[in-house]
């Protein structure tokens, strides 16, 4: 762990020493600066948790330095000019607290603690607001009593209390994020944040900024410092979903975190400490990819210290009745009516291959609940599977007025698959032998067709 450092910016040498000694007794390490220039130099070397800033310094006004400083950490402004106007101006400029000179050391301790607690509460509120919807959406999918599910639960119990990296393998829709959440729940990090990032959803630079954060001026539009998800997960768990999609540059930076526990923000020069447990998930064969060179071999071995492989739904069909009841019980519309799947519809559910796994089952159940209306019984006519949609499509031929190039063939074939499989990206990805992310890119490139 890195030491908690507080930056004291005060040109009075005696007061600077007194403040540093007082902070040391509180359990912090003080870094001293007597000018704004020295403070800027210090910020290139350390990442303070708090700054105590004098309002007037030999080379400038402290309030003019507040905007840059408050992007990095909370700031306590000191002033010998004890007017309400000065205090209000400091708070508006970004100060967390203010102190009047001469400094009361008991008040100093109280104000330091309050400033740090306020910043922690603000960051936690932002994090939970961002993550709450995701967590609620995935909170109870591990339902069932199959032996395959019990094996997964046993592995979770075994590895959760440790701090090793875990790689979760499984097809799309099998509940990989739920397993990651359970690993966090039963770990020694459970009181800190569980931070999830889908590696498929962002472009390279945005992904890097989201994960590592960025410094002010790192790129066009970066007008403020931004802490990344690694810092949001401080002391907790960082879950990287579909890690097989990240490019070589991010792979190298992620490997450095696993090997050294250090990283840098985008555009940054300081090494920061990453106190996180990394859990990754993929629907791809990373071992094969590492052998082929499309995924770093050394990163694969770092991530795969412990592997949990989730079974597809077709290998745990006995869990379907419990899962369907769970989805019915948690659907707002069905709470008014005690809905049940009749025997014929249950038979169809058990006979289907479920290429989209639990996610597809949930969608089928929710659609059936809506289509069944006020009826208590859900019958086969209320069910709509990806496979049943295919049977009602006529075959589509690729026709060209002249000899097409490869891009035209790919475009028309993609449109044909979109039509034939009703836009079901999981099925299309399997047919094409690519990831869902690549299907999404093709959708953006070629559109959905007519």
TrEMBL record:
Residue positions where 4-aspartylphosphate is found in the record: 54
All residue ranges annotated as the Response regulatory domain in the record: 5-116
GO molecular function, one term: sequence-specific DNA binding
Record's protein name: Transcriptional regulatory protein ZraR
Keyword Transcription: yes
Protein keywords: ATP-binding, DNA-binding, Nucleotide-binding, Phosphoprotein, Transcription, Transcription regulation
Organism: Candidatus Venteria ishoeyi
Every Sigma-54 factor interaction domain range: 142-370
Keyword Flavoprotein: no
